[in-house]
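WARN retry 2 of 3 for item q-0093 after timeout on previous attempt; input resubmitted unchanged.
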Amino acid sequence: HYGARIPMTTIAAPMVHDTIPGLGIKSYLFNDDISKKNTSLANKFQLPYMRLPGFEKIERNEIVVFNQPADTLRDMNDFHPDRNYYKPIDKKTNLVKRCVGIPGDTLEIRDGYVYINGKKTRLPDRARTQYSYIVKTNGSDLSRAYMYERFDVTDNFGQMSNGDYFFIALTEENAQRLAKSPNVESVERQVEPAGTPNPRLFPNTGDTGWSADNFGPVYIPEKGSTITLTRDNLPLYKRIIREYENNTLDIKGNEIIINGKPADSYTFKQDYYWMMGDNRDNSIDSRYWGYVPFDHVVGKPVFIWFSWDKISKSVRWDRVFTTVNGPGERVSYLKYFIIILVVWIIYSFVRKKKKK
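OK item q-0093 returned
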């Protein structure tokens, strides 16, 4: 779709990504000591970024596969945004998220809702955006089996010390249905107010006043576009300048120095994107590590071959053989596949019989 990316890591174990299963060691030859990034002999075997021509561009609100720019996902709960973003691009962890912002957009999050260029985003019909809620009952218990069967709740939830229930992920539709239950007194969506200190949030300075639910505005860089560069907005773009576009960057007093020369502007060399998970309050995404460069984009997921429900420990047949993107509700092509498979088996059997 977006053009096949040529592999950059030339010496690596086949059929595995970044780690050899069972051994827990790197599957590829690369010295990830940042001080030796450009001098290590092992790193000389890396090929430069190249991509074959694509036949479409990434559209806003499409689901995209990409390499996590600040790859620290060996432990999702131990996220440090400034560690390990010097791994080879094609060996960073593959993620699947929704592209909510494309190059040239100005993005802002208000009370958990995404606004692009000042307008609230309207997601596709298949999107099932989830938020966290606190549910107060009349004393009745909300069992996992009940919530799964009635409301298709597959994420964990728990009872708080005051008896209320905290749900990490509910769709707004299910929250409204739950509020109508005779055993439920109130359902309240949780919104992190602006000004909540969180140094884990991009640009990881801790002084923006932004929260995960009230964020920005930020400009998403477009290839060839030029911005005025100041000490105030430098934290938003320093990783792009230094890590993704391979410039030297220093600050001397109030002066910004790029490649040894004073700079008050910067022109971007590639496109960038803003990726977010539909499970808004349980997702490590661009709110934490910022922009996704186009050279980190792998492609577009097309088909769901298999889906397993961890709660019911059964196959989600309504998701097997369904397309990922597209208008309208999800449609399964499993029955057509089975019909074609049966026809092929019968045809092969008859053909062999005739040969005999």
